[in-house]
Write a structure and sequence with these properties.
164 residues, 4-stranded mixed β-sheet, extended, alpha+beta
Length: 164
Amino acid sequence: MRKGIKELSELALKDLKIKYPNVPDHAIPRSKYLDSTSNGLTKCVIDWINFNGYQAERINSTGRQLDSRKTSIDVLGRSRTVGSLKWIPGTSTKGTSDISSTILGRSVKIEIKCKATGDNYQSKGQIEYQKKIERAGGIYIIVRTFQGFYDWYNIFISGGYEKE
């Protein structure tokens, strides 16, 4: 197991022990962290930040579905559905990051591009969003593996990170 994932698992166990002090160690379920999917990598990053006393949350930028379908039954007992499903775009900023966090009082926006799933490139909207964040003095990073994030985090916390 890689160092970053191992430390994350230990932090998760420590957190559970604090939340459930009366539960014996052998009965506490161990969290499994994997960074091989976008959702798994996102969970790793959010949990790491939160377990270390900072703030992180997932940003839901998808829209929502409106269901205008109506089903009726005719006199013969047959069911008929009329209407459709319609997708309404979300109200979030175009290109918004996957994770919004605050670390050491700094706004850090994190875009997840999972190396294992081949999701490698930013959209034009994401590039524009990154420029806006950086112009405003925020930090924007792209995370492809948890180990990469872990290494960035340790440099950032020690004061060695400066964006070009």
